[in-house]
Amino acid sequence: MTRRGDRTAGPTSVGPGAVRGLVDAGGEVALLLEIIRLTANGPAVEPLAAAVARMITEATATDVCFVHILDDTERTLILAGATSPFDDHVGQVQLPLGMGVSGWVASHRTPVVITEDKESDPRYLPLPALRGTEFISMASIPMESDRGGLVGVLNVHTVERREFSPRDLELLHVIGRLVAGALDQARQHRRLAMRERAHERFVEQVIANQEAERRRMAGDIHDGISQRLISLSYHLDAATHAVDDDAVEVAVQLAHARDLLGLALDEARVAIGGLRPPILDDLGLAGGLASLARSTPQLPVDIAVDDERLPEHVELALYRIAQEGLQNIVKHAAAALATLRFRVHHGVARLDVSDDGVGFDVTRTQQFGATATPSGYGLASMTERAELVGGRLRIRSRRGVGTTVTVTVPLGHQRERC
């Protein structure tokens, strides 16, 4: 029988009749195969931990099983999986490394077996939520993966007193290593997903801040510079009518000032529209694209767009890409017709800007960079806008056939925030 003072590595010498194995050889193979099958499916951390806990208790005739996983700080164990009735506590029980039996096992990477009288073990820390006093015997095994090191701790408990042999511990150790690899992979996947969501939020916030600043600047121009220019225009008109007939030169100079003022007003209005297209706020992307098509008098534009609202920063990016694409066609393509298409399908927004113009060599474009194309297309800013909102820009072109610029933006989390 295990001595109370020797509980770290399990019993060292046990009579053959006193050892009760966790599971027979056939059951052991079946259990390992089932765990391999389960981990190969790559579920998330909590479902995998819960499924493993259930399988271990069923196969080993133990009463409860707890799977504790290191959190992202790697300083705290969190209960990630448990058998009933403790499954309600998943995610709520936390144990710093070094505290309790599980914390000790995680710190020392060494199994612990307690056959009875847990309260006398200095490492034992009662957790009321897990009702440890109701269980007599326990085995605690570190779960380690070759790539990720320590992943967590696997515990089994029994209501009745039970011996755990070296073979029992070896089996639990093998299970721990099998599960650790899958749990570590699931944990890394979760971390990556969290980083991606954080990146999305960061990009969205950056664009939102830029747009807020542009709105402020547009308002300042409209309320300040534009209003002063308009007021000045009235004064110039009044001065023009007030001069005497013999003051011809004064009238000429005032007329020149009036012309310059008109140009300044036009430039201020263009600047306001460039900072933030008001039509996006009023009519959304569909209305904005339709307005772009109508405001390109040099070229007929065939347009077909879905009336779908997207997050503000995505709408702005697609509007600017379409705007620059149409400008490029007018400047460089020598086209007879442009085509503008926008649709949302299966959670992906797609924008196509096409022409039937002269086209260019896409291979050379990729070789020399988007801003150094032989036809003068400035594609770098369009590519940057697409990538900032998590999208991708693709160019298809052939000389004498025309060009199509396609932007696809997976909406995903972005759609939920529109």
Automatic annotation (TrEMBL):
The record's GO molecular-function terms, alphabetically, read: ATP binding; phosphorelay sensor kinase activity; protein dimerization activity
What CDD domains would the database entry show? HATPase_UhpB-NarQ-NarX-like (cd16917)
What are the record keywords, sorted?
A: ATP-binding, Kinase, Nucleotide-binding, Phosphoprotein, Transferase, Two-component regulatory system
Q: State the GO CC annotations.
A: membrane
Which PROSITE patterns is this protein grouped with? HIS_KIN
Q: What is its EC number?
A: 2.7.13.3
Designated name of the protein? histidine kinase
Organism of this sequence: Pseudonocardia autotrophica
